[in-house]
User: Fold this.
Amino acid sequence: MIIGVFDSGIGGRSVLAAIKRLLPDEQYIYYADTAHCPYGNKPLPELRHLVSADVDYLLARGAKLIVVACNTATTQTIDFLRQTYPSVPFVGTEPAVKLACEESAPDAKILVLATEGTARSSRLHALISQHKRPNQTVEVLPCPGLAAAIETGSSSQISAKLSEVLSALKIRSPQGSSGPKLAPDVVVLGCTHYSLPLPKSLIQTAFPKSRLVDGGDGVAREVARLIKTMI
Ligand code: DGL
Assistant:
């Protein structure tokens, strides 16, 4: 089966890698809309227009299932896509808030790094209200410009942009503790660009004691489940 996968740029390749690990024998078309990257700062009407063009491109090339390998597009347009293309099975990529809340301590500090679009989406805030346990803290940090730096910048530009966005962080170690200055227990990589190897390692260096999670493996499992229903 041909599986179409799209993102604003290279970020969705982190999702594609997770799907290919689970389903190595399927055929894949990856579409990166680099002409319009980043998506994270786009107004909703423009984003809807762009994702429709992405889907049309993949359908015209024979895709039978489409993976929205972009948190920004998923959190803001997945319902629109399902309504617009009712016969097409879609799998979206959402920030791994459920995983972070379920697999951490009842009083864990959880940080969600995301684009501006994802950070303000009602879908992300609904996920947090649904899964956050009463004593857990969840901070959402919008990271303007980080996906764009990952898309086209050098490693030092990515590193500089990451330091800039993290300077707005509120979750910190208790005063006087010897741990790192910034100390979430779990960091949710809520943009697929952040899960690529270089940005992921820079984020891990910024949060040496934190567990990093993303939605890639969950997307892969959902694709596998859907394919079984389609054969
Ligand atoms: N990689 C995408 C995401 O997961 C889009 C990043 C962007 O283009 O702003 O949100």
In short: Confidence is low (pLDDT under 50) at residues 176-181.
